[in-house]
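If it is no trouble, can you show me the amino acids of a protein and the tokens describing how it folds?
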Amino acid sequence: MPSRPFVGEVGCECVSRRLAGHDDERAHSDEVRTIDVVSRMSARGIRVAIDWHMIGQPGVALSDVGRYQRMLTEALVATARTDDDIWALVAWPGAVDHIGPGIAHAGIGHHHRAWHQKDARDMIDRLGCDVVVASPDGALQTTVPVIEVVHDALALTHPEWVARGARARNPAALSRVMDATSLVIAVSEIARVDVQSVWGIPDERIVVIPPAIDRVIIDAEVARARIAASFGLTHYCVALGVPGPRANFDHLAQAVDRIDGSRTVVVSPEASPSHRRERDYARGVRFLGPLTDVVRRDLIAGADIAAQVSLHDGCGISVLEAMACGVPVIVSDRGALPELVGTAALIVPPTVNGIAQGLRAGQDQLTADQLRASGRARAAEYSYARMGVAAWEVLRGRGRQTVVFDQTAGAGV
């Protein structure tokens, strides 16, 4: 996608043009915290701002948090009314390369946390937004309702599993953000449970909206040829997840070695962890990232098998990506992963023995073919249309508490 100009001031042409002719009286009380307030917007179009501060940072791969924010923005655009207005609040110039048609963007600061918060607050006010969709780590303080998107509560419940940069700097401040939010979007049922158990958010302030994934048509043989040319890989297992203790990469590498020895290489599309302790949990894994979206998808599509055997995961967007690519998938029986895959993947305990049994089962050609077909079908359920309709229902104050998928337990081994 060609680069777009980075908009840092609301007076720039592409921003001021979108502002022209819109009602300036859009402020809501900062005391409002329930979805009933959002229902007052249903009589006219809604101007919504999506926090993209985590997208486009130089040298940093797009996380599941960033992917979800981008997916949600695109889903809202795809299902919007003609009088609705969707804005991405971008903190890094590289973020505009991720912006698709129909999405306006405005720049906010990124060099200092306080400046970022002030820039975001000022931009939200100047745009006249009705509602903001953010992530709790952004700690946005504004006079309009804020909906927080939550993937998990690991920064508080298991900080030892979380990369150092993602750990909560101030748990009390994070709790205040969650207490003040108008509504929480949980990306899975497991994430909803986390939100309730850690922050005590009542049911009426939580909705579950799973992610979406593109329908992917990739020639696996062509993808393998490109990966072989770029990285010298032929037979490999792609390890999905954020490197660190939670990802359980060391158990995956041991299981692969037990089954295939040196024949199959374990690779990750992520960058190598910068901290030694996190690298210690990924011995035997070759890190190739950060990768562009195109190369990342080639890497996944060309794999013999994809595995996300983490100790906990609140979302698992990479698993959806692998299923959409028609790659056999193994996931652990922890967190939201069984909920995500249904019967379309092999579900195993995150132990060396459990993972090895899954890998052995996935080597059977009939099983692998079944997983490819069921994975594509399962991924197709997570459409942008479904995600967008559910999100607009929430924004217009008519949302159901959960977007329902078939949650039948997966194909355990």
